[in-house]
Amino acid sequence: MSDKYQAFTASPIGKILVKNLGLPAPVALERYTAGDPLVKGTVLVGGRGRLGESLPGLLDVLGVASTTAPSDGEKYKGLVFDATGISTVEELVELQAFFTPVLRSLSTCARVVVIGTPPAQLKGSARIAQRALEGFTRSLGKEIGKGGTVQLVYVADGYEDSLLSTLAFLLSPKSAYVSGQVVRIGTQKEKHGAEVSDWTQPLAGKVAFVTGASRGIGEEIARVLHRDGATVVGLDVPQAASDLQRVMKEIDGDWLTLDITAKDAPQRIAQHLKDKHGGVDIVVHNAGVTMDKKLANQNPERFGKVLQINLEAPERITAELLSQKVINANGRIVGVASIAGIAGNLGQTSYAASKAGVIGFVDSLAGSLKDGITINAVAPGFIITAMTAAVPFATREVGQRLNAMSQGGLPVDVAETIAWYANPASSAVNGNVVRVCGQMMLGA
């Protein structure tokens, strides 16, 4: 589904009306195409702290051109500021000293990343100053404009070398619809690592299991994981078998049709993954439904069905895969939550409860998983799909414009975020919930 309003604002008469009436003017977002460099331009690196000296070297590994010396007339595709050395409130002015002179030198769809230390690791003034970075980055994300994004990455002490996959994602067009987010690296008690020899195929040799894979966001997740080298096992209900088989054949994948709420579904899934693939490396719980009604008009069967599909089934399937050791070492579990589970939505008490529960599901497992297995979640905002095309026009327009980018996202934006979590080099990214919502004005 195309964004007709965005197309109108790019027309001659639309440009005039946008300028004279102060209407939102959504920028066409740059998205990654296989074979492209991660960053088409130069990244300016600044700040002082634990990562200052190593950042140019990390970017060099990714094939990203960088400089530490700003020059007049230069345009930058990204800014990376090491704020780990800021330990007092007074030192926060270093943010202004770095950013203000160069913000007007940013290209369209530029990327800004601020790196800090998790406040929980600190005390006193240092803790206060590091926590202040969240307000700074979220506000800058709403100012930057021109399709740009701003993120804060808290890197735990000792995990400086675990930043590569996160930089690759946040500085590239893969993070087109992710902004104003806080990513935490190094929350685990034990450190696990895995090198990536080919950043164009980081999932080569991996097996990925994706539920709800026949269409929409699930289909795009399967395609992006395949693009990155994974063998994909897609699952959907028997009614979607033909669409599922079509998608899996196109990406040389495998498929399984069943109802994930069935009593024996976890055992059947585990058996299939063991027998046909020897285990699984990436588990994506994407399948979900909405059965929207105001609570006063809701009935227990519909309310319970949403909870069973969206929340109970992922919990049961994951428990079975873990107990049978079907998930390989350094494996990835990803839940698909929703901005509705964070901010709530009119008429979506059951859906919002289930998606908030997905976040609780991540919280409940993040600290107990072993063998380098991680669990994270994505929380999509307004994503343009066939389902949202059926939403009434006025509601759809509000959903698309009520974010810093004044537009809806695409299924590929969710898929790219999941591919970042799935990357073997993301072993220190655990327990995160990243919102793929263009930085919604509410709940983000």
Automatic annotation (TrEMBL):
Pfam name, any one: adh_short_C2
Origin: domain of life: Bacteria
Domain Ketoreductase, residue spans: 206-381
InterPro entries (alphabetical): KR_dom, NAD(P)-bd_dom_sf, Sc_DH/Rdtase_CS, SDR_fam
Family to which the UniProt record says this protein belongs: Belongs to the short-chain dehydrogenases/reductases (SDR) family.
NCBIfam families: PRK08261.1
Protein name: 3-oxoacyl-ACP reductase
